[in-house]
Amino acid sequence: MFLRKHPPFLQISGSAEPFGLIFVLLLHIPIYIMMTRRLQLALLVTLLSVAVSSHAADTLALARVRSVMNIPLPSAKAVVECTVQSEFPVEGSAALRQAVDVWTRGVLADVLGDTKGGQVNESAVLSSVENRFLDCAVAEAGQAAHVKDARTLALTLDFQMTRVYETSRAITFCIDAPRYGASGQRLETRVYATFIKADGSQLTWDALLQPKAKLRQRFSRALVKNLHTYFGTMNYVDLLARTSLPKETSELAFPLPQAAPALTRAGLRVSYSPGELAPASAGTPVALVSMNDISSCLTSAAKRLLK
Question: In terms of pTM, does the model score above 0.85?
Answer without folding.
Answer: no
